Amino acid sequence: MILELAGGKETIARLAQELRTSLHDSQVLTPDSECYADSIKRWSDAVEMRAGVVVYVGSAKDISTTIKLSGNYAVPFVVSGGRHSSSGASSSDGGLVIDLRKMRRVAVDTSTNTVKAQGGCIWEDVDNAAADHGLATVGGTVNHTGVGGLTLGGGYGWLSGRHGLTIDNLLAVQMVLADGSVRDASAEINSELFWAVRGAGHCFGVVTEFTLQTHEQKNPIWAGQLIFPASEKLDEVVAFANDFVLSNNGSSGMIMGITAPPFMKEPAAITTLFHNGNKSEAELVFKRLLDLGPLKNTTQERPYREMNSVMNHAVPYGGRKLSKGASFMPRLSPDFVRSLIARLKELHSKVAGSSRSILLFEFFCPQEWCRVAEDATAFASRGPHQNLMIGPFWTEADDDKVCREWARTLAKMANRELERVKDEAGRPEWMDKIGEYGNYDGDLAPMIPFALPLANSSAG
Question: The pTM is what?
Answer without folding.
Answer: 0.94
